[in-house]
Amino acid sequence: MNTQIDSSFTPDALVVGGGIAGLQSALDLADQGLKVLVVERQASIGGHMIALSKVFPTLDCASCITTPKMSAAAHHENITILTSTEVEAIESAGGVHHVKLLQKPTYVNFDKCIGCRLCEYACDTEYPDPFEEGLGAVKAIAVPFTNAIPQKAVLNAEHCSTCGTCARVCPTDAIEFDQQPRRLTIATDAVIVASGFKLNSITVKPQYNAQRSQDIISPLTLERLLAPHGPYGRVLRPSDGKIPGSIAFVQCAGSRDESIGVPYCSRVCCMYSIKQAMLLSGALPLADITIYYMDIRAFGKGYEQFFQNAKAMGINFVRGKVARIDPLDGGDLSLHVENTEEAENPIAERRHDLVVLAQGMIPGWNPAAATPVACAADGFVATTSLTAPTATVAPGIFVAGTAAGPKDIVDTIAEAGAAAMQASQYLFQKRAEALVG
Amino acid sequence: MSEKNENGLRRQDEEAQLECGEPGRDEAARVERAMEAARRQEAAEHQPEEEKLRIGVYICRCGGNISDVVDVERVAETVRLIPGVATAKVHTFVCSDPGQQTISNDILEENLDRVVVASCSPFLHEQTFRGAVARGGMNPYLYEHVNIREQASWAHKHDPAGATDKAIRMIAAAVGKLHHAAPLEQIKLPNHRRALVIGGGIAGMKAAADLAGRGIRVLLVEVSERLGGRLNERGAVYPSERSGDELVADLERRVRRDPNIEVLVSSQVTAVSGFIGNFKVQVQPVRPDAKARVIDTTVGAIVMATGFRPYVPRNGEFLYKNEPCVVTMPEFIQLMRSVKPDARTLTFGKREIRKIAFLHCVGSRQLDGVHEPQPDGKLNTYCSRTCCTTILQQALTVRERFPQIEVFDFYRDIRTYGRGEEAYYTEASKSGVVFFRYNGEEPPRVESAPAGRRARDGAVSITVKDTLTWGEELTLGVDMLVLGTGMTPGPIEDLIGQMKLPTGEDGFLQEVHPKLRPVELSVNGVLLAGTAQGPMNIQETLAAAGAAAVKAAAMFAKDNVELNPYVAAVDLDLCRGEAQCVTQCDYDGALTMVPMEVGGEMVERAQVNAGLCVGCGACVAVCPHRAIDLNGWRLDQYEAMVDGIAADIPGHECAADLVSIH
Ligand SMILES: Cc1cc2nc3c(=O)[nH]c(=O)nc-3n(C[C@H](O)[C@H](O)[C@H](O)COP(=O)(O)OP(=O)(O)OC[C@H]3O[C@@H](n4cnc5c(N)ncnc54)[C@H](O)[C@@H]3O)c2cc1C
Ligand SMILES: Cc1cc2nc3c(=O)[nH]c(=O)nc-3n(C[C@H](O)[C@H](O)[C@H](O)COP(=O)(O)OP(=O)(O)OC[C@H]3O[C@@H](n4cnc5c(N)ncnc54)[C@H](O)[C@@H]3O)c2cc1C
To answer: Tens of pLDDT along B343-356?
Structure first.
């Protein structure tokens, strides 16, 4: 892994985003002998996947699947990784893509930092840990998380008290308070956009009142609660630390809804909710777990069987739309459910003490604004070729994973391989033409 | 060369001396020599050179997956007492970069010469840790992987003390095994830079075109007369609404024009042997009378793109074949394609259709006790992934072209999950398609209408308990019922048998791991593209084909194919040419008798083909002379492991007894 590069570095291909899509694309290019630069705006590669608990449909622990790919990329002789670096724009001319990067200051010299964490131990300023979805606390200077790559400390200037302790304890003089943002342009022949997804706001549906209760949570928060090395080491209600007894999953809480601008299906929510319900029922055998849904979309290989297993485990599946959620005084949450299956009480009030909203997936980055890549009406990168689903409208720029629409890890990985194939063919042909002409 | 010679320095030297001194000219002498060798091996096994070894043991918490149950600190303390163990460390994720770095550093800084990692299944991380060990400059096969997650913490969740004890014993076994380990080298085989793609649907054509686009030669074999597979005659496909024929034509043009691709239609692969980098394949014309020739050729990789077969309902299933107006989706698509562009009505067998129903999940998502099993006794429990959107696309098309036709849709869950697919559902609802939702446990009943009422009420009636209206039971007459039939595995039993390919519970070809190795089959060098793996739509099929192609391209980027060295090895000192191993061997060509000169005489001896041997060990079990063994898994290593496990460990103090194997 090499973090000090300048514009003289001209990789064969540049990958935007170091999530699982970006890493798989990079590996598949590098294994063919091509030089790749992976650019990730976060302090570690791994994307969303490294923060998940276990992953459907095999229930492998997410770290166990992600870390080998992260590590393989980090150690690959043909792969260079830049973290804390954002792709801001791409200008294409004469078949060359000039990719504009913004390297954010980490206030730590990565060439000197040995990842000993002495600064982290000595620092006495803490803030809510973004990796733990704000549930735990992290020091103002810290290695981002246990299995982060690179294992380098990063200082968060927003939360730093500038006391200077870290600089005093650092055995290698790696702390550099005067670091400035650095702009850099890399010229490359091919680009793979793997900029991933975000969840839309948890308050996107005002009728769910998420801003009024800490116990109406994001599914990413639940992933951390369920992770074996999560913030509490077990599942507790964020508001009062109680063990929840009755948990509700509200499906399509930010998708399939034209009124909020997300008419499409986010494709993974059914499956991750079923997975989370199964993991919860393992962690809290006494808890009552209900999934409120419109359609269960368990379409992938082995997914329907996964769903049937969840039913057999005693997880309640209620077909009905949750119209409103009201936080009650005692801490409970009241759900108003239109249940089409029970004639006796079609509109029922159900009480739970923890509610998970299946927020919708939206694009992680909008490349249309600053690159030759176009986006479709759904906001994700447009792909128009009939036979090459990973080609964008811009020659030499390809797309993989959730940057081209919601999808699970299995489909993301396949698409990443396809994008790498498309890009390597493009490079191969370009070079062949250069030789001829 | 004799395997056991490589066990340790001292033994190697002794062996060399003995061999010089004993020419072994006659049978008696040879037997004596063999027995002597066996005795020596025994003796050597019982005196491992523990003092000399410096073994590093790394114990993983796996977040908490292991350490929540297994007392990992105690494990470390205990195994540190085992002779030969130089260091034992605990890490939260040994697989993470810092974890791996610790191993590489320790090898250099603490002079380790053997490494054990006790963590998850070797399936996940054996390769990872071999890499870390190699980066530290050590032979990667002096590494042992111990699975204390699946086999200790997960299996004995409610018995932490027992799980901890088991973890210690398993590590002791690995340490014992390492005392007998020899450095091994990967097997390097020549790599024929050419691929065979079986199946000329869109998956096969895409994989072929991608490989050829990288300058790799491809042989594309299609059993039917034409390329395109199931997309031929499909008409406009969702979500692009462009013609499937256009897509097929586009790909076909590319594969036909590319000089790197040889296309053989009406042909089948009749024989496959060999191994990764070097498969011998035979391709024959489907009809023997055809003038086409039989081709015998060599390829380095094989892509399975044999696709799917549409589900065909049993006779009588929802009155299929009993009532002509009950048709499958492919049949309905043909009907729609046969309609003249200016037609105002849709007719079927001279009858005008006024009411039409679509039924989802026919032959898919089958439930035990509800659906009748397939002829093989199995249920199609899986979702076919493409039927929902296909139905809604067709329903919408009917409403748009023939607004007078009433369209009813009977579903369990609408699965318009893909990009651009939900719009079909929304549009179909807006266009007036009427939806009924049934529970999987209570599928709709289809009955023939009485003769006199067919003209008015429709030829069949459908009775459903509609869960959209609180389970109300409704009966509806229609003129046509379209069964939303799904996908089933293609008829490739011959290839599956011949190539020993694994299939899943659902009958489709089974990948090694859905996330780690999603397009690879457990047979090295055989890749998976498209619906041969399971239901997929066009985009997913094309992506899977690209993913398969990229794996082949990466494989061809190297001059040699590199394989793990866990194959059988014959000790020519002990082999007496009885060929029991060859008889026992299940893998054609992996083990053969070959003439050779031993001690000045021409004899037949067993010989291993490293490319074909899978390291199953069946040969080892039958050899009466212990003349064949598995590199990396030799019998003396097993014995050392068993001793390690069986040694008594009442407490920390006694752990040192673990490897006092006497
Ligand atoms: C709660 C939840 C649970 C899930 N559970 C499962 C599961 O069990 N099984 C499963 O198969 N799937 C699951 N998924 C889906 C899975 O998370 C995704 O399929 C996968 O993470 C997508 O990977 P990606 O690389 O496309 O995107 P991401 O993981 O989002 O990675 C994109 C990366 O690009 C970076 N980036 C973006 N823009 C820029 C830029 N301009 N410059 C530099 N870097 C940039 C981002 O920082 C990010 O690291 C789950 C999803 C959620 C929300
Ligand atoms: C009714 C229906 C409608 C659909 N509509 C759509 C749609 O609108 N949009 C969409 O995205 N998807 C649609 N799909 C899915 C789409 O058909 C598949 O994704 C696609 O056809 C899969 O391509 P394939 O190459 O994997 O398989 P196939 O199309 O099945 O091709 C496999 C090929 O391999 C050949 N073959 C098989 N065995 C051998 C052998 N032993 N030797 C040599 N050749 C062999 C076959 O003859 C065939 O040509 C639909 C599916 C169905 C069932």
So the answer is: 999 999 889 999 99
Cβ neighbours for B235, distance < 8 A, ≥ 6 positions apart = B243, B244, B333, B336, B337
Q: Evaluate if residue B650 carries a pLDDT over 60.
A: no
Judge whether A135 lies within some domain.
no
Q: Identify the CATH number of the domain in which residue A189 sits.
A: 3.50.50.60
Q: How many domains does chain A have?
A: 2
Sign of CA dihedral B471, B472, B473, B478: negative
Within 8 A of B547 by CB-CB distance, chain A residues are: 28, 413-418, 421
**Quick check: bond before A57 cis, omega within 30?**
yes
B289 burial type by CB count under 10 A (0-12 exposed, 13-18 middle, 19+ buried): exposed
Q: Are residues A278 and A351 in the same domain?
A: yes
Does A392 map to a domain? yes
User: Rounded to whole angstroms, how far apart are CA atoms B1 and A426?
Assistant: 48
Chain A CB contacts of B508 below 8 Å: 301
Helix or strand run (H / E) with residue A321:
strand A316-327
Residues of B in contact with A389 (CB under 8 A): 539, 542-543
Kindly write down the DSSP assignment for every residue of A173-218, as one continuous string.
--B-TT---EEEEEEESEEEE---EEEPPTTSSGGG-GGG-TTEE-
A192 plus A233 within the same structural domain: no
How large is the ipTM? 0.96
Residues A221 and A262: beta-carbon distance below 8 Å: no
Domains of chain B, start order: 3-46 (no CATH), 55-186+638-658 (3.40.50), 194-307+490-561 (3.50.50.60), 311-486 (3.50.50.60), 568-630 (3.30.70.20)
Q: Are residues A208 and A285 in the same domain?
A: yes
Whether A381 lines ligand 1, by a CB cut-off of 6 Å, is: no
Kindly state the average pLDDT of the residues B472-489.
96
pLDDT digits (tens, 9 = 90+) for B103-162: 999 999 999 999 999 998 887 788 889 999 999 999 999 999 999 998 999 889 889 999
What pTM was estimated for this model as a whole? Answer: 0.89
Residues A294 and A398 in one domain: no
Supply the pLDDT for residue B434: 98
Domain limits at A298? Answer: 199-360
Residue B22 has pLDDT above 50, yes or no: no
Question: Of A33, A256, A421, which has the smallest distance from its Cβ to B550's Cβ?
Answer: A421
Closest chain A residue by Cα to residue B551: A28
The answer to whether residues A341 and A368 belong to one domain is no
Q: For B542, which of A303, A389, A411 is closest by C-beta distance?
A: A389
**Can you tell me the mean pLDDT for B548-573?**
94
